[in-house]
Amino acid sequence: MKFSRYVRVTMASVALLCVTGIANAAFYDLGTTILPAVSGNASPGPTVTSPDSITLKGVWNGATTAEGFVSGNTYTTSWYFTTAQAGLFLKNADIANNGFANFSATLFATDGVTVLKTLVAGTTYPFIALATAGTYRLDVAVRLVNGENHSYTFDAQVVPLPAAAWLLLSGVAGLGALARRRKVAAEA
Fold this sequence. Notes:
Elements: H1 5-22, E1 27-34, E2 47-48, E3 53-60, E4 74-83, E5 88-98, E6 103-108, E7 115-119, E8 124-130, E9 134-143, E10 150-159, H2 163-187
Parallel strand pairs: 1-3, 2-4
Antiparallel strand pairs: 3-10, 4-9, 5-8, 5-10, 6-7, 6-9
């Protein structure tokens, strides 16, 4: 049985979608830091691929026993994770601030300088592009005050280019082929 080119392209697109959905997911806990420690986790951090999930936590118990801690100061914790392939995305990235008065979170590109995204607590980011392979850093800055127990959490899933984009690209290619075929037929 012979299939037309359009049916073959569609079948290839469906097969690609199936392959991307079969991979096993892993869960990476980047760690829990008891604040005001500013260590987070060590660079380069775990290597994540698609479809891995990553999470991290920072906890402040309100205690004043930390050496060098100054109440009311802002402390920054750095979290690292590495991607081995380019073209991945953080899907549904969400950072939750559970009580800190001053709170900021910034995701840096692999060069450590370029800001990919400044994350706002309570906002879910559908897709954040991780364009190049390498080590990414998330800096979380909080103001710590004696007697106030607070925490924060970050969750995201690492995914390839969304399946809908592959489907859209195959559809655009099919429309282009159809237009070319009509043009050739009209010239004949």
